[in-house]
Structures are given as structure tokens and as C-alpha cells.
Amino acid sequence: MLSSRVEAVSPPCTPPPTPEDSRALRDVLGAFPTGVAVITTRGANGAPVGMTASSFSSLSLDPPLVLWSIDKKAGCMDDFARCRYYAIHALSQEQQALSAKFAQKGIDKFSDTPHTAGMDETPLLPEYCARLECEVTERYEGGDHIIMVGKVLVMDQDESREPLVYHRGNYARLEP
Description:
single chain; 176 residues; mainly beta; 7-stranded antiparallel beta sheet; 3-stranded antiparallel beta sheet; 3 helices; 39% strand
């Protein structure tokens, strides 16, 4: 006679990281693959500003809202804290070098980077998997980050491109 009782077997687990162990937390969070985006705006001085982010997410379809977060210590934090518009460029697999460039500190990220002007002169990159032009609706405190919520005003995508993915601290590719 077969028993209908099933016993759950829990895999051994390690204790969760403590708040003081930020490297361990980053490693655990890195197990979740994310897309890679370059987010741009116009700085207070009128110059183009941009950064690489993997914290981008959809928030609402009605109204169309997205969110992303920026480290309070980021060099462009003041510009994003004041901007009215920003653009999110979901990068393609061919844009790993662009992602690395916009992740660097202390360089002119727009030197030799073609771009046009969107709303309020927000810099728009010509190549992407998807691009969203947004108007800031809210900014929230989120620990060591500011959470930026934006209403999507203009959107576009290039269906011929595959997204650039980040997983466990490295770039990865999606295999169709």
C-alpha cells in the first residue's frame, strides 16, 4: 500500500547575510539576472549626464510608470535629483562596452558617444533594445539610494536586438 504522505526535504541553507555583510548581500541579489540600462538626463549646467543601472523595473501599466534607483553617492546624483525628464535605454548584447563606459566615474561619458536631444534636451542614444522617455513623478528615500519613479511619455524598441543581461557580477547572454 502506498502512502500519500510526502515529507518535505529542505536543502541545507546558510544563515542570511547580516546588514553589515554587504558583499554577501550583493552576491545573493546577483543570483537574480537583470537587464542593463543607461539612464540619461540633462545636467543642471546643461551638459548631458548618464549612468549605467540594473535597478530598472516596470511599476504600473495604467498609468504607465517605471522605476529605477540611484546611489546617493553617485557623481550624477544631484543632476538626477533635480531633473524633470530622463531616458532609459535598455542595452543590447552588442553594447557591453557602452555599459562599461557609463559605469565609470570621472570621465566624459558623452565624448565619442553619439546622441540626440529628447524632451528638455535629455540625451537620447541612437541604439538600444528599448528606450523610454519619462517625466519624474516621484522620488523616494530608499536607504542608500533614491528611488526614481517616472511616467512613460515616449517609448520605442528595436525587436532585432537581444538584451544585455547582468548575472552574478558578469555580463551574460540570453539564449533563444
